[in-house]
Amino acid sequence: MNAIVPHWTAIGLLSDIPVKGSRCIKLGSTTIGIFRTAEDEVYALEDKCPHKNGPLSQGIVHDNCVTCPLHNWVISLQSGQAQGADEGSVRTYRVRIVEEEVQIDIGSAE
Ligand code: FES
C-alpha cells in the first residue's frame, strides 16, 4: 500500500502574506502561490492557471477564489477547480498554521 505521508514544511509567517493577496515559494521547478483571504484563511496552489498557465499569484483574491490576471478565469482556492463554465483544475496543497507559522504539506497533492 502506498500511503502518502504528510510532509509539513514551514514557508514563513502569516504576516508575510498580504491580506487578499499572495506570495510565491519555489519547490524545485514548481512555483506555489500561497494565498490569504480577507478572513485570514490560507491556501496553497500551484501558480499555474489551468487555462493557459497564467500566474494565479498575480490575480485578485476574492471570497475563496482567485481571478487569473490573464483571461479572468475564477479558480477556487479550496479545490483548485475552475468555476462557472470553465473546466480544469490546478494542484492544491494542504496548509496549516502553527503559532503564526504557515506550513504546507508538500507530501500531499489533490
Ligand atoms: S491563463 Fe488564466 S484565464 Fe487564461
- Name given to the CATH architecture: 3-layer Sandwich
Using the alpha-carbon principal axes, give the shape.
globular
Structural class: mainly beta
Order of helices and strands: EEEEEEEEE
- What is the rounded distance between the termini? 18 Å
| Average pLDDT taken over every residue | 94
CATH topology name? Rieske Iron-sulfur Protein
Identify the CATH class. Mainly Beta
Largest sheet: 6 strands, antiparallel
| Overall tally of domains | 1
In brief:
This protein has no helices and 9 strands.
Report on the architecture of this protein.
The chain is an all-beta fold and 110 residues long. It has a single domain (8-105), classed as Rieske [2Fe-2S] iron-sulphur domain (Rieske Iron-sulfur Protein), CATH 2.102.10.10. The protein has strands spanning 8-13, 21-27, 30-36, 42-46, 60-62, 65-67, 74-76, 92-98, 101-105. A six-stranded antiparallel beta sheet has the order 1-9-8-4-3-2, with no helix packed on it. Strands 5-6-7 form a three-stranded antiparallel beta sheet, with no helix packed on it. It is globular, with a radius of gyration of 13 Å. The mean pLDDT is 94. Bound molecules: FE2/S2 (inorganic) cluster. FE2/S2 (inorganic) cluster binds next to loops.
